[in-house]
Fold these 4 entries.
Entry 1:
Amino acid sequence: MNLTKQSYASARWNHEANQWWVGESITYQWTDSRNRPVSGWMNFDNALLWIKEHDEIKETNQKTV
């Protein structure tokens, strides 16, 4: 599995502060060895949880075969 990173700049108006918020959004996606997506785009913490759950399910399935 490969972890792919995607980032893009974004801006939005903060009505409470009466100013622009400018920042970078970063998301991650798991891909297989052929670079085909196997997960959706998510933040880094969720990407780590996703691969942990994926590996646990894979390990459980291998034990039952």
Entry 2:
Amino acid sequence: MAIQDVHQLNVVGSVANEFVECIMHFQQSGSESATPAADSLALCNGFQATFETAFLAMVPDDFELAGYKAKRVNNTGGPSAVLVRGGQIGTVGADSFTSAVGPCIIANYYKEHAAKPRWATGRIFVPGAAEGLLQENLWQAPVPANCAAFAALLMNSFAALAWTYGVYHKATVAPKPITEEFFYAPTLIQLSAKPGVQRRRLLPTL
């Protein structure tokens, strides 16, 4: 099933010198662009201009942003584009006590093309839990409000190419094993009641 161009965006940085990434997908308004590298760079620039301040407000003060990396992941793919943003730090108000646990933003969408259509959720794992801001598994202020502000921005398309955040999914569908791809725009994006844990961040880097 042909869909519009979808690009993967990696927000790359570190929490207390531990490498972290936050990965999202955005659909472009056009299809099979002849300039995927330029489009990916436009996505990086658009995300930086629209979301960077709100993203930094969700992460610990010892988070340091290295930059953004993006590439088209469908319609023949494309080379990676990189936007370096060294020196930008988190502004939530406290240093981290772990990089493996952090706020989890969930995106609700209806998986209409599944063999059994159902509601599902995409996830954005925000890197790092700040000291004192997670108590008895509940996020303390200003985390909920800052995550809600970031989620509200994600619900709108942005930049000149009208990028839309969503969930990119590949599936094998009946009646024969054909792989099809789908992009789902969420109906609601919100902070999960449960803290997010990424097992790969529990492992040492060396």
Entry 3:
Amino acid sequence: MKVLVDSQSGEIQGVYNSPLNFSVSGKYIVNVPTGAGSVPMDSNDPLLLIAAKKSALMALHPTLPQSFSDEFLDISLVDQTLSLGIVAAPNKGTFVMPGGVLMTDTMLLTVPILTRVSVTYDGFLLNRNVEQTLEQPDPASLLYGWDPGSSSFVDFGSGIFQVDIMDLAGAVVLVPSMQSGLEYLYANPTPLSVRLRFTNLSMVPWHLSDYLLLAG
């Protein structure tokens, strides 16, 4: 489910299923994956929705109690010094160019006995429909999930980003090539400072929508 939020008021405007075949200019999307199950929509506050979404995803991994997450509503958790080929902008405006690398800020794992980790993450395309713009000029029109190359709406999938857990310096790979939502065996003494590295393997820029790192 795609939850449309007004960037200025910060209020939820509506709930939709893909594709969103209308302009999302001046809005951003909170993505709630199907695997999260039924996430309550008790108010028009996106922060409450994001908290409920996080709880639902954590419930899928009951043995991984420690969590770190970012919905990219601001850029505070993006390490722009260690990143390369990115544009960092608030309200889910952060994207990674082809071959670019986004490095997150550090996260301190403190679980007493670290045995497993998991990362759930999502991304999206955000482009103008050039053909539509030529017919009905509207420079502000933006389509969520629109791929100009195929002239169609495209969902996020595996193989777009390579996601690795890195050491404190961002130089050593601790857990490589993590698929979204899967648990990986990883044992190391704690406390342990780590980062996530997102590498865009595709040929077009992709926005990062969110991530949730779990450890236990």
Entry 4:
Amino acid sequence: MTDAANAEQIRIMADAVAKAAVMQFAREHPEFNKNRLPPTFKWLAGIGSAIVGAAIIGYFNWLTNTVGSMEVTLARMDERQNSQVTMTDGRYDDMDKRLNRLESLHGFGSPR
């Protein structure tokens, strides 16, 4: 016989031995042949995982929308606060000018 024919016969014999070993193992260990969960439980688990996945996606969608709206709110608050500071500074400048004018009238300081 040629080497190719010998290799083919060896492969066929190895396949037969492997099948026989698997069958022997299945006969000796019947606990591996049983379905551990009924199909109903598998369906319920699949539906439950789909619901949990949708809930997680919804939560993160809500979270990103909330953070976006908070960013807009904080920007508006910052603008409002800056305008109040500017207005307050202007009012203090006006008071300072009036105080200097009064002091100059009464001789406490030099006129500006």
